[in-house]
Amino acid sequence: MSQKTANIFPEQPRVLLVSMRNLKLHVSRSAPYEFEDVICGCDTVDLITPTFNPNLFKVTNKIANQAAKILNNGELLSSLVNYEFKVDKEYDLFFFFCQSIQDILVLNSIKGWRDKCRHAVCWLDEIWLKDIESSQVQLRLLKKFDDIFMNFSSSVAEVADIVQRPCHSLAYGVDAVNFCPYPRDLYRCIDVLSIGRRSLVTHEALLKHSEQEKLFYIYDTIKDLYMADYRYHRSLYTNFVKRSSYMIVNKAKFDLIGQRNPQEEVGPRFFEGAAGGTIMLGVPPKCEAFTDNFDWSDAVIEIPFDSPDISNIIADLNAQPERLAKIRQDNIINSLLRHDWVYRWEKILARVGLDVTPRMLERKAYLKKLTEMVNIPESCDQKPQFALVD
After folding, report:
1. What dihedral angle (degrees, nearest 10) is formed by the CA atoms of 194, 200, 203, 204?
2. Which residues contact 73 (CB under 8 A, 6 or more apart)?
3. Would 271 disulfide with which of 33, 174, 293, 372, CB 3.0-4.6 Å?
4. Mean predicted confidence (pLDDT) in 335-349
5. Containing structural domain, residue 234
6. Which DSSP string corresponds to 294-344?
7. Is the same domain home to 164 and 41?
8. Is the peptide bond before 32 cis (omega within 30 degrees of 0)?
9. Which residues pair with 26 in a beta bridge?
10. Which one of 105, 136, 169 terminates a domain?
11. Number of structural domains the chain divides into
């Protein structure tokens, strides 16, 4: 069956997208902004980017959300001061990536977005079951949307009960084109990459080994990570991933093991590590969303949360070059064919009855073309030179 494509000549924007990129600069925001960039590159979009002093916004956003809870009404308050944008054109689709439910009050400064847009979709990111009760005032504002997509599948039912709108589980994604190490076939000059939360035991073992052997180990060194420019940060991180032989990747909130945190979800790092073709080591989540999206062999090689013998684990893997080559191929190819952001956008469009665009089809064709370049012969598989530790 042939796919229908939107025929827009001349190209009038059919999507109105609101981005937090000038308000929220934490590193965790770079992936959603990457998604927004892919949408803008594949569709016809008008982008609204409210601009405000980020430091002042932290204060006003907190005050507005606290006031909304006290008044039990989120429609009366905006998190922005002296900012108002009026939508004066008509669109087929309004889209908002809401990483924190507290972001939703920004929409009170955008006048007419619901009236001027035929469909309205929100992607609600990372809302934990334990936080839903305290977020009901903000969640009720989602009733203005036709559909809500959520990447935390275990929270979908409870959010749907509150907002009384269709809520759908949709996996995270990645810019698989940028993360792909091909067509340049990049040299993996980084031995081990560890970003974000980590086991102190595993970290100390890697530090010790890096002091004793030829090991290039990259890890975070500061707290409260904020970006000067999300594009620079995303580019740096992307290049780290696709130049790394191994990457420590764990389930969300994995450092709360042993505490009361029964909800297991798939964080974005799994999609990023796979797309970059690195060998992922860690504690994957035990949930349907993970098994559905990473259903090939060795997508993540499970190791203990605390791995004092991490050097021996990697040395043993290095003795299996054919296995490593197969893992890299499977990770990259599955990402190119299944986990690029364009596939997520396609599902959102299908839900509201909008056609894909020619540029979306072009991107999908290029993703398919990249898979034909992914051939990692044993002799080219770059590995860190780990020695077994007694």
Report:
1. 160
2. 137
3. 174
4. 98
5. 176-340+371-380
6. S-STTSSEE--SS-TTHHHHHHHHHT-HHHHHHHHHHHHHHIIIIIBHHHH
7. yes
8. no
9. 226
10. 169
11. 2
Predicted TM-score (pTM) above 0.85: yes
Question: Please, what is the end-to-end C-alpha distance for the chain in angstroms?
Answer: 60
Q: How confident is the model at residue 113, as a pLDDT?
A: 96
Distance CA 288, CA 286 (A): 7
Helix (H) / strand (E) containing 120: strand 117-124
Distance CA 267, CA 148 (A): 19
* CATH value at residue 305: 3.40.50
| 201 falls within a domain | yes
Q: CA 41, CA 70: separation in Å to the nearest integer? A: 41
Peptide bond into 10 cis (omega under 30): yes
DSSP string, 37-94: HHHHHHS-EEEE-----HHHHHHHHHHHHHHHHHHT-STT--S-SS--EE--S-EEEE
- Residue-level length of the chain: 390
If DSSP codes are grouped into helix, strand and coil, which group holds residue 18? strand
At 133, list the tokens: 């009760």
With 70 as the cut, is the pLDDT of residue 257 above it? no
